[in-house]
What we know:
The chain is α/β, with parallel strands linked by helices. Helix content is 31%, strand content 19%.
Amino acid sequence: MIPTSDDSNTNNISLSRIRSFVRREGRMTLAQQRALTEYWERFGVESGTVLLDQESLFGRRATWVLEIGFGDGESLATMAATHPDINYLGIEVHRPGVGHLLLRAKELQLTNLRVMCADAIEVLEKQLPNNCFDRIQIFFPDPWPKIRHHKRRFIQPQRVSLLVHKLKPLGQLHLATDCENYALSMLDIFNATPELVNTIAGNGFAPRPDWRPMTKFEQRGLRLNHIIRDLLFLRHANC
Length: 239
Ligand SMILES: C[S@@+](CC[C@H](N)C(=O)[O-])C[C@H]1O[C@@H](n2cnc3c(N)ncnc32)[C@H](O)[C@@H]1O
């Protein structure tokens, strides 16, 4: 079943965890609604407690990439179409975005993309095995710019080990943001994480890789003359 936009179940779930998003349904087009109904079976993966396995999801083992918070999913669809040899799993809470990506997945006849409509933190905690991803990518996570909201940011020191353990040894952790303060905070957090190594000499930001398609939020950041920062780390080979 696809989760609803109803957030009234908040009382039943752990209130101890502060969410990195506010679930707003926003406007959903008829086409997106239809995609959620018609294409979910083909591309969708249920959230819950079942441990996910690459072979069962894709019918093959290959390089496996996780994208968290794909937004409208355009850049993820482009990546999946450009790299049919790679398996992609995308997780997003915003249902119109999920509907949009399902539409694109059908149009592009993608066989290497699976989509979850869920809180990625819960999926990481309950459904994803350790040591399974070759890359985890999070592009333009919500910046939560007000200091009192920083606790909502997806990247927190206490969450890094959850992410890192989902990577295979030498797997990549790739983030991008147009929020300088968040970029600096992530750089400090990752540089201080013993299981991670910065791919850039001097432990700085990475140049924007050519293979990362432009995202909707990146375009917005550029219109606002924000500096775009990429962070590219590897999980150590033996920790
Ligand atoms: C600022 S948008 C960026 C979207 C897209 N990556 C882009 O660059 O255009 C951040 C996205 O992360 C999603 N998000 C935030 N927290 C999430 C979570 N815990 N699990 C899944 N998605 C999340 C939001 O719904 C939102 O679509």
